[in-house]
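We include the pair:
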Amino acid sequence: MDLQEFTGRSCPQNNPKTAKETQDYIANMIKTKKNGSDWDFVDDLAILLAHIGEESLDSNIIEGQVGYADSPLKPRWAIKEGCYPFHIKDPITGENVSDPRVVVIGRLIHMYGSHSGYGLEYMQELYVATAKVFHHFIKPLEYAWVGIGRWTV
């Protein structure tokens, strides 16, 4: 079962590959869905985040099942060797660091929620929404967002 089958929603034709492409993708999403609710926006970002995180997963190897916050269980895919969800390898140090696309999304949702005084709460809602569709454990997203707003591990 892939993410589209599980959520009933199609993935972006091409996942943004850079932080700039991610900003442009989200700006376009905001323009095209002006009449949607904030929670529709959060759900759309959750799908995008799940696809970014799943770039490091191997959907051909199922290790078990995973579910989160009353979501149905789904296959838990294996992590590709040398990868870590929501992170990329730093070309200089060789260490896994937060994926800039994930950081951009975290900062954006925090800023978006901060206009009403609820930046952290919006991040928490996006975290839970992403966990409900992501095919592995969600903890790496928590680590990728450390330092954004009041987000801590």
In short: The mean pLDDT is 87. The longest strand covers residues 57-66.
